[in-house]
Design brief:
Elements: E1 2-8, E2 12-18, E3 23-28, E4 34-40, E5 43-44, H1 50-54, E6 66-67, E7 78-81, E8 84-87, E9 100-105, E10 110-117, H2 120-125, E11 130-139, E12 142-151, E13 157-159, E14 162-163, E15 166-168, E16 175-178, E17 183-186, E18 192-194, E19 205-210, E20 217-222, E21 227-233, E22 239-245, E23 250-256, H3 262-265, E24 270-272, E25 277-288
Antiparallel strand pairs: 1-2, 2-3, 3-4, 4-5, 6-14, 7-8, 9-10, 10-11, 11-12, 12-25, 13-24, 15-23, 16-20, 17-18, 17-19, 19-22, 20-21, 21-25, 22-23
């Protein structure tokens, strides 16, 4: 049986449940369309910094922030398009804006569809008319995310889109990685480093991008939690980012359609023609053993 319930907490919270598998999502449309909780048989898959979450002025660290129309940061938070320069902060604005609920599905699976539309405020930093649709589909231990970006402008629309899931972990030394790449770049550096399957978790922060991917799936096995996370993504995604901070019980494995600063460099930048829609699919599979 599949159900969707709505509770009024700090924010209106949609609770999606697959009762047979005891899998559940909590989604906050008005707080950036974010999933804050994903649990299977009572065990949390996602991490959430509850103190930051309570403060609406702070970005959320946890759940699955949505990245649009850029992934990562821009030099001096600026980019130029069609001869005009605009200011856009890290990861764009989608994760900070209220989304609307467009559809609820409880047949064969449970699904919540959300929509974000351009407005006068977004056009001050991103001069395009658009509609972004997100579908969160839950079935068993699998979360499928379908993203659709429609260009409602009269000119081609450039963007990057990404997904920023935070996974709960208690001992990072117990993590094993299967990432389809043999090299990465650290944030802020052009230098290429070989990847041997391990990270140095004694560092204060790890923020690296895998830009040359040989496959369409990656996985992290947390032996301490007996949990394997598998991330599957389609051809639209060119980059995987791994990020974590020392002393915090999370790691992030993020699929991005383009690398940092793609809006200025054009590298793997997605461009959608007027009236067209670009669709992407991401799938997360959580296996507790």
């Amino acid at each position: 049986m599949f159900t969707i319930d709505v509770e009024q907490r700090q924010y209106e919270t949609y609770i999606l449940t697959d009762e047979k598998s005891q899998s559940q999502l909590e989604v906050l449309p008005k707080r950036g369309g974010i999933i804050t909780k994903w649990r299977i048989n009572g065990q949390e898959v996602f991490y959430l910094d509850e103190e930051r979450f309570k403060n609406p002025e702070m970005s959320i660290r946890g759940g699955n922030p949505i990245l649009f129309p850029i992934c990562g940061n821009l030099p001096e938070d600026s980019y130029t398009v069609n001869g005009q320069t605009f200011t856009l902060k890290q990861h764009g604005f989608a994760r900070n804006l209220p989304w609307g609920v467009s559809e609820e599905v409880t047949v064969d699976h449970v699904c919540l569809k959300l929509a974000l539309h351009s407005n006068e405020e977004t056009k001050k930093v991103y001069p395009f008319d658009f509609q972004v649709n997100f579908s969160y589909q839950l079935h068993g231990n699998t979360l499928t995310i379908v993203q659709e970006v429609t260009n409602k402008s009269s000119e081609p629309m450039p963007f990057s889109v990404g997904f920023h899931p935070y996974f709960l972990t208690h001992d990072k030394s117990q993590l094993e990685f299967d990432i389809p790449s043999i090299e990465f770049q650290e944030k802020g550096s052009p230098e290429i480093h070989p990847f041997n399957g391990n990270f140095d978790f004694s560092r204060d922060e790890i923020d690296v991008a895998f830009n040359k991917l040989s496959g369409k799936s990656a996985s992290v096995t947390d032996k301490g939690r007996n949990l394997k996370i598998t991330l599957e993504y389609d051809d639209n995604f060119s980059t995987l980012v791994f990020w974590t901070v020392k002393g915090k019980d999370f790691y992030c494995l993020e699929p991005w359609s383009g690398p940092r600063n793609a809006m200025n460099t054009g590298e793997n930048l997605t461009i959608v023609e007027p009236g067209a829609t670009q669709s992407t699919i991401i799938r997360l599979i959580a296996n507790f053993s």
